[in-house]
Amino acid sequence: MTPHKILIIDDEAKIRSLLARILELEGFEVYQAADLKSGFRKAEAVEPDVILCDVKLPDGSGVDFAAKVKKVFPSVEIILLTAYGNIPDSVQAIKNGAFDYITKGDDNAKILPLLYRAVERRKLNRTYDTGSSVSLPDLSLQGLTGNSPLFQEALTLARKVASTNATVLLTGETGTGKEVFANAIHKASPRCNQNFVAINCSAFGKDLLESELFGHKAGAFTGAVKDQKGLFDEAHRGTIFLDEIGEMAIDLQAKLLRVLESGEFIKIGETKTSKVDVRIIAATNRNLEREIASGMFREDLYYRISVFEIGLPSLRERSEDIAAITMHFITYFNKQYGKEVKGIDKEVLRKLEAYSWPGNIRELKNTMERALILSENDLLGISDFPLWIRKHVPEETTMELSQIEKVHIQKVLRFTNGNKTKTAELLGIGLTTLYRKITEYGLND
Q1: Parallel, antiparallel or unpaired: strands 5-9 and 308-311
Q2: Which helix (H) or strand (E) holds 81?
Q3: Which residues partner with 275 through β-bridges?
Q4: pLDDT at 208 exceeding the cut of 50
Q5: What is the pLDDT averaged over residues 285-302?
Q6: Measured CA distances, 354 to 324, 330, 370, 443 (Å)
Q7: Residue pair 141/311 in contact by the 8 Å Cβ criterion
Q8: Residues with Cβ < 8 Å from 400, sequence gap 6 or more?
Q9: Which helix (H) or strand (E) is 214 found in, with range?
């Protein structure tokens, strides 16, 4: 069992010690350095998974350090910490390969969730560094596996659209695997040898997001001392993934619409247009049609990004896949931690299948990782799982077959927005049979 390695670089000993104590309690293996020179030596010695680095240090800038580290260790993730955040530094930090850039004090509560996301990205980067790729038939590596009709429909649509240049909109709850699907579509596309660039639109304010996406000219705003390329430039001939696009400011949506319509945009502070060839995959957990009705999202942009929409089902809508998903995670974490767990106790599995999983695949993955770390037996038992799993009492499962069938038909009808033809296809029954069952079960309304 190998814990994830975190390197903290900060010249303030109290901050280093406090962060180190917090991370050690979370189970991380923590290393410390007081300046960039010793920090780089430490990184060479231990190759950490994530580096937490102050921006202003006695021997240089953490922003420049990020670029140096990414050249030598491209899969190591870097989170920069600063006492006083500013737009130029944060933009440059992202360009230099930093995972994120946050302000000390105000953002203390964000550090742990951000760190866990960086660790997840590190794992994915390691996969790419070895020359392998996440292809659509092999999404099981990320825990996205299953034979439920809803999941198989999403997977089939993703496979079909991958070979085209069509804009894709991925919808679904948080944690359903939208970025993994987007990455897989890119890897299975003719653009697979070009950049896949991902950005979470909810993580930036309007001005910073605009600069991040389109770039800026020197002098465009205070502190903009040189020209900066945007992520659309970085993704030229490749794919850009716009996660949580529903969070984008409405006036910035107009600029994105122009890119979709003409492949053109204007950098901040620039007068001439830039041309770009980029495939856009967007994602949201919001109901964009409701956002349109409330004036928060442009209708014309919605029609442009939803050329090919794929809805990713929540885990509670495909609970029949949980047994297969847990086995994939057992295999995955066995390799990572050197374990030999063979499976999971049937009663525990029953609890997992009955739980609603509000965090979806991401929550299940984290739960399984914790269980594998704690396990000392061949089978995962109830003591390996958190208290909320232990206390969860599954609903009575001795329903009649007709009740089970009714619930399943309801789920598929909701997924297809009432499309009877599509529902019949997913259920593998004839349209006439479906109409008969809808009448029989009183599902007409």
Answers
A1: unpaired
A2: strand 77-82
A3: 264
A4: yes
A5: 93
A6: 15, 19, 19, 24
A7: no
A8: none
A9: helix 206-214
> What span, in angstroms and rounded, lies between the C-alpha atoms of 148 and 140?
14
Architecture of the domain spanning 401-440: Orthogonal Bundle (1.10)
Q: Which class is 5-127 in CATH?
A: alpha beta
> What is the C-alpha to C-alpha distance for residues 375 and 345, in angstroms, rounded to an integer?
12
pLDDT for res 399:
47
The dihedral built from the CA positions of residue 104, 51, 173 and 354, taken in this order, carries a sign that is negative
- Angle, nearest 10°, between helix axes 431-440 and 401-415? 120
Name the pTM for this structure: 0.60
* Residue length of the chain: 445
CATH pick for 141-311 out of 3.10.20.740, 3.40.50.300, 3.30.559.10, 3.90.1150.10: 3.40.50.300
- In whole angstroms, how far apart are CA 250 and each of 87, 295, 297, 306, 326? 20, 9, 6, 17, 41
SS3 content of the chain, % helix, strand, coil (to 5): 50, 15, 35
Domain segments of the chain: what residues? Answer: 5-127, 141-311, 318-390, 401-440
155-170 pLDDT, tens digit each: 888 888 888 889 999 9
Q: Exposure pattern of 160-174 as b/e (b: 16+ CB <10 Å)?
A: ebbeeeebbbbbbbe
Topology match between the domains 141-311 and 401-440 = no
Task: Determine the Cα angle at 113 with ends 111 and 117, to 5°.
Answer: 110
Going by the DSSP 8-state scheme, the letter that residue 268 receives in this structure is B
Burial of 23 (0-12, 13-18, 19+ CB in 10 A): buried
Find where tokens 């293996």 sit.
29
**Among the CATH numbers 1.10.8.60, 3.90.190.20, 3.40.50.300, 2.60.120.10, which is that of 318-390?**
1.10.8.60
Radius of gyration, CA atoms only, the chain:
24
**Distance spanning both ends of the chain, measured CA to CA:** 53
